[in-house]
Amino acid sequence: MQLGLIGLPLVGKTTLFDLLTEGRHRETVQSKASVATVKIPDRRVDLLSNLFQPKKTTYAQLEIVDIPGLVPGSDKGASSFLNAVREADALVHVVRAFVGDNVPHVEGDIDPIRDIELVNYELLLADLELVEKRVARIKEGKKKHQNQEELILLERLCGVLGEGRPIASLELGDEEKNLLRNYQLLTIKPMLIVVNIGEEHLRDGEFPRREEVLQYAAERGIPLLVMSARIEAEIAELEGDEKALFMQDLGIEEPGAVRLARTVYQLLGLISFFTVGKDEVKAWTIQEGLTARKAAGKIHSDIERGFIRAEVVNFEDMVKWGSMTRIKEKGLFRLEGKEYVVKDGEIIHFRFNV
């Protein structure tokens, strides 16, 4: 799963990227984008690791790409920008709302709603151009009658994009989504907006054109987070009581990286289950709604193929009682079959035979 950070230049996108990746990343040659695989912060993994004291603790992981900032109205770098966006599974649109005389805004002033629309317009335009070309090819081709279903769908997309609406605003069925899968459309991708504010507004959360930005996101069903990437980077450098006191002084209840990770999981419909033991405590990421047998396959195909049953414990019960022995004494240990739908936070041991 790849998460792409997008936005205009000098919006704090790279500061957020460095925060999430702890400065560990590599640069790709083709697009000059920076790429890193990051661990997903999860207090449940921390608690289970403290409980089992394993030799190894493994968090869920996500690949993040810092895509070079888009310069509106300029062809320079536009192709690299769009190609990098196409590769991402979801987008985090970082929008500048902080004032900094030493960091000039590419448009001259701070206007978050304008900046959001500038970037989204480029995505819409790229999709519209691609779809219109495909429509023309189908109409000119000899097999037009064989592609009638695709043509109807694409003409519908042309209408939506022409109105300035993203493809994600459409209710698409599974068959329609399959038809579009190879197009790598940009505005169909799940998106999250991060408004990057200055330290002076951490407590009140205010920023220019705030109500319009909130309305824009709400109308399109786009999740929105407000944070200061620079301050969050400073918080990440601290530990223990010093970190807690600093956050309390600034009115920050939860680190931005944790909020971002949780929101991305919700956006993509992802959940985590855990495997535990003295050797390793590990978080596994799966799509919500996955059955126990399919979840077992995420660990190894042999476990899915030879699935017998899943031994399931709720995370809260494990933390409360502290051991599998106590869990069984309390009758909180469950055996589930292959069609059982795995829930977020469950601790699972799979029995299998091959």
Overview of this protein structure:
The protein is α/β, with parallel strands linked by helices. The protein folds into 2 domains: 2-266, P-loop containing nucleotide triphosphate hydrolases (Rossmann fold, 3-Layer(aba) Sandwich), CATH 3.40.50.300; 289-352, Ubiquitin-like (UB roll). The protein is 42% helix and 19% strand. It has helices at residues 13-21, 43-52, 78-87, 112-140, 148-162, 174-180, 210-219, 229-236, 240-250, 256-268, 292-299, 301-305, 315-321, 324-329; strands at residues 2-6, 26-27, 34-39, 56-58, 61-66, 90-96, 191-196, 224-227, 270-275, 280-287, 307-313, 334-336, 347-352. β2 (26-27) and β3 form a beta hairpin. α1 (13-21) runs parallel beside α8 and α4 packs antiparallel against α5 (148-162). The model has no long low-confidence stretch (mean pLDDT 91).
Structure, briefly:
The protein has 354 residues and is α/β, with parallel strands linked by helices. The protein is built from 14 helices and 13 strands.
Keywords:
alpha/beta, 354 residues, Rossmann fold, 7-stranded mixed β-sheet, 14 helices, 19% strand, Ubiquitin-like (UB roll), 3-stranded mixed β-sheet, 2 domains, 13 strands
Outline: flat
According to CATH, what is the class of the largest domain? Alpha Beta
Low-confidence stretches: none
Q: Portion of residues in helices?
A: 40-55%
What is the radius of gyration? 23 Å
Distance between the termini: 30 Å
How is the CATH topology of the largest domain named? Rossmann fold
Average pLDDT taken over every residue: 91
| CATH-assigned homologous superfamily of the largest domain | P-loop containing nucleotide triphosphate hydrolases
CATH architecture of the largest domain: 3-Layer(aba) Sandwich
**How many separate domains make up the residues?**
2
Summed up, the helix count is 14
* Proportion in β-strands: 15-25%
Largest sheet: 7 strands, mixed
Class of secondary structure makeup: alpha/beta
